Amino acid sequence: MEEAGASLKSYLDLLKELGQKPSSDVLHLAEKLGIPLDSTLTAELALKTDETKTETEKELEKNIQDEPEQTNYESVMDGIVKTLEEKDSYEEALPLLKDLLNYNRQRVNISAMDPLYERIERAHSTMENDEELVATYKEHLAIKQQLDDIEGELHLLDLISAHYTNIGDLKASKRYQSEILRVKDGLEYKQAMEEEVQ
Asked: Does residue 103 sit in the same domain as residue 140?
């Protein structure tokens, strides 16, 4: 966690040297990591926290339009999380991964959400959080469907089915096995139609 804090501190110092202010997301992350902020940034954070929902939404819209700030926040967060993952510090990485997932969800960046779900699943699996793992599989399944990633969808359905088999819920397991068959049939039909066109 110290390396993550050091990375964020370096980023904040760089912004200060450039005369730029960090986004509210970065300020909140610094607060979570216990990084001391100078008095002007602390006051800014307090103001942001006290904003009404409407004002917060306006700020969010402004941040969405500010592409370089998005990229900076996302890359800083990703770097911090990867450092934690490399050290198997999944308990510390998981909330940051979820924040990064929500950040991309707000921007409807589905292609960035897909690998984040895989990383969240790895964290839950390592920490043996089976209920959260299956809930994440189910959320990820919707992303795979939107991306039309049939192989990924089949893999997740298989994992969910195996989980229910392992806990003795055969009814739920059979339901997911039926879904696997339905998806495979759809894939075979799609392939047959493509072959006919050629």
From this structure: no
